[in-house]
Design goal:
Pfam families: GGACT. This is Gamma-glutamylcyclotransferase. GO terms for molecular function: transferase activity. By secondary structure, the protein is mostly beta strands. The chain has a domain of 110 residues: Gamma-glutamyl cyclotransferase-like (Hypothetical upf0131 protein ytfp), CATH 3.10.490.10. 13% of the residues lie in helices and 41% in strands. The protein has a six-stranded mixed sheet with strand order 6-5-7-4-9-8, with helices on one face. Strand 8 and strand 9 form a beta hairpin. The protein is globular, with a radius of gyration of 16 Å.
């Protein structure tokens, strides 16, 4: 995945607590991890792909619509699985397919931003981790929070289109 404003290919990306992020670049200096200081509140975008989509009638989707602004569509490389009434996404920069969804933005200033994220974290539960993922949009890449599945996916059917219509 090429980050247009940096121009390097990110091999992997993970959050190391609230103040540091680790990047591993494959084309500039192979096998070197870089630490980038940042703030946990720097990322004010959230990417959703399931029950939180704007068309959803789920109460948490309504919560998201009331507390943020819909930006538009986006996608990331990975796989989407059907867990029945909701989907599960796995971020994989080497995947041939994509997970499609929508970006939301939490406007500033918002003193309740962390509380709103915690409400969403509680809704997603222990099956999901909130991580920062580069999302492709019509205007380029945006680093967004998104919820990725942290359980084995072997027994779940894959949604080959990468789109959840629940």
């Amino acid at each position: 995945m090429v980050l247009s404003y940096i121009g390097w290919r990110v091999y992997w990306f993970r959050c190391d607590g609230p103040v540091h992020f680790w990047f591993k670049f494959t084309h500039i200096i192979p096998n070197i991890a870089y630490r980038m200081p940042t703030s946990a509140t720097l990322f004010r975008h959230l990417f959703v792909y399931g029950t939180l989509l704007s068309a959803s009638k789920h109460p948490m989707a309504e919560f998201l619509r009331q507390n943020s602004k819909l930006v538009g569509p986006g996608f990331f490389p990975g796989r989407l699985y059907d867990l029945g009434t909701y989907p599960a996404a796995v971020y994989d920069p080497e995947a041939a397919g994509f997970v499609h969804g929508e970006l939301y933005f939490f406007p500033e200033p918002d003193p309740d931003y962390q509380t709103r994220l915690q409400t969403l974290d509680d809704y997603e539960g222990d099956e999901y981790d909130r991580i920062v993922v580069p999302i492709q949009t019509t205007d380029g890449f945006v680093l967004c929070w998104t919820y990725v599945f942290n359980q084995p996916t072997d027994s779940w059917p894959r949604i080959s289109s990468g789109r959840f219509f629940g």
